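pasting for the record
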Amino acid sequence: MRLARDTLLVFRRNLRLSLRQPVWLTIGLVQPLIYLCLFGPLLESVAEAPGYPRGDPWQVFVPGLLVQLGLFGTMFVGFGLLRDVRDGVLERLRVTPVSRAALLLGRVMRDLMVLLVQGAALLGAGVLWGLRTPLWTFAVGLGVLALVGTAFSAGSYALALIVRNEDTVASTLNLAGIPLLLLSGILLPMSLAPDWLQAIADANPLRHVVDGARELFLHGGGPSVVPGVAAAAGMAFVFAALAAWALRRESR
C-alpha cells in the first residue's frame, strides 16, 4: 500500500513537470509521424519485392514505428534524472519516507503514460493513411509498446545512475540506438537483408518484438507473436532489475 501511494506521488510530480513542457511531448510524437508521412509511402513501391511480408504495407510499417516509438520515446529520459541528481532533488527525496523503489516506478509510470498517448495518436494517424486491422490488435500493440517503453525507460535511468555524466550517457545511447534501430527491421523488414546480416540481427531482441508485432497486425496472430512478447517482457524485466540495482547502489 505504501509503495503504491509513494509511486503515485512521484508519478504526479513528474507528470506535472512534463505537462509544463509540452514541446517535448510534441517532439516525441512528431518524429514517428514524420516517418509515417515521408517514409511510409515509399513502401508501396517495394511491397512486391522478394522477401517483403505479404499484405498491406501499412500493417508492416506501423507496428515497426510503434516499437521505434518505445525505443526512442524513452531512451533519453535518464537525462531528467541526471538533472535531479545534479540539483540535489534526488538526494532530498531519499531522506524522506518515500519508498526508494517508488522514486523510479513513478518516473517509469509517467514515461509510459506519455508513451501510450503518443502511441494511440500514431495508430490513429496510421488509420488515416490506410492502416486496417482489427481493433483488438491496437490494444495488444499498445501493450507491447508499454513493455518496450518500460525496458528502455528503466535502462536509461539505470545508465544515468551508473555513469552520472550527461556526455557519457549521450554517447552510450547514441552508440547503442543506431544498431538497435537498423538491426530490428523497423524501417525495412530484415527478411530483405542478406543471410549474414539476418544472423547478426537475430541477436537483437527488438527484431523479435518487431516481427511479432507485424505478424499480429498482418494476421491477428502467428508463431512470431509469443516470442516477440516474451522478448519485450524479458527486456523490461532485465532493465527494471538493473535500474533497481543501480538505485540501491546509489543509496549506499
